[in-house]
Amino acid sequence: MRYLCIYKPRKDDELCADPTEAEMIAMGKLIDEMTRAGVLLATEGCAPSAEGARVKRVGGETIVTDGPFAEAKELIAGFCLIQVQTKAEAVEWGRRFLEVVGEGESEIRRLYEPADGGGCRAIPPEAS
């Protein structure tokens, strides 16, 4: 099963200080371990929301809002895509990631697979 792990930092300001050399080394070790374990498919950090936009469709109208975005709890700082056997394994990798980056939240979301039939009701709750 593939899981998208979305990282949301717990900081009032998304323009936080660059990671220290020790933090970069720790993250490199975790990424290396995930790669050797065969679970890491992709990982990236996100540029500040000031460089982004939100596109919304409401009542047949498309609304585009340029960043920055005020709600820090909604900001996504990065993501990784992993392939694991269980949700518990995905949660464990998310926990380990937060140990490296510090305060924040990692939202773990299972991705649909072709065998799921493509619909949100196709996955029984016990399979998540």
From TrEMBL:
Xref: SUPFAM superfamilies: Dimeric alpha+beta barrel
A Pfam family hit: YCII
Domain YCII-related: 1-96
Cited InterPro entries: Dimeric_a/b-barrel, YCII
Domain of life, per lineage: Bacteria
Family the entry assigns: Belongs to the YciI family.
Stated name of the protein: YciI family protein
Protein source organism: Pendulispora rubella
